[in-house]
Model the fold of this input.
Amino acid sequence: MSGKDSGWVKLWRDQFHHEISERKPWCDGYAWTYIYSRANYKHGIVNFRNQYIQVDRGQFIISALKLSELFGWSRRRVNSFLTSLEVRGMCYISRSNRFIIITICNYDKYQSTEIEIDTTDVAPDVTTDAQQVHTNKKLKKEKKKRTPEEILSEISVMRDRYQDQETINQVFQAIASIRKTNQITDSVKLSILQAWNQYPIESVMTGIRAYLEKGYAGQGKNEKYLLGIIRNLKPEESERDGHTMKSTGSRALDDYYRDKGINII
Done:
């Protein structure tokens, strides 16, 4: 874009508490503006209902009920809206029984750190290049390596998405058994959970059960193979109650359903 349609404007976050925002329901565009304006501009710890949770830059925590009240929408419309944002690659949603974590995609690209950082300690006659070096140093300080406690906190949040915790434990043990040490680090667990988070809960659990029941870990097939099973599983196939279904396109999933007595055509 060029001309008047290019560049940036500052957004007043407090406008969402102003009378201008009291007229409900909000449109999708205004709701999206609220979401990306709420994201944290730096890493931190948030106390959500007496639970301390690690929140990264570009993320924020809220409940679907609160969004429903803010937007003047039904819970169903809120969930549909969030799903559409994920499908369009605008954000990622991590859900638990108590809250959701929204991660804005490309937050660093669209929210210039230079705007957010207080540069009053830079002398007026400093050159542009020197000021950029100063800014980069401050950015490096912000991007600290996560502590083990922070990683465990995020693992806990992402695991809350699943009710069947025993099956989650079993699949982590199966994946660990492939390693020479028979262990996987917490950072690996977190990356696995983050990968699963892109798919519906039913698809993830169905894929995990197929992986465990077919004994794929014993064949040396790791979490990437499991993710492939989950990826190839269509959402409507995760709750199949008939006796005949079309092939999923995945041999592993087709074998899984055949073992369940379902005829694959």
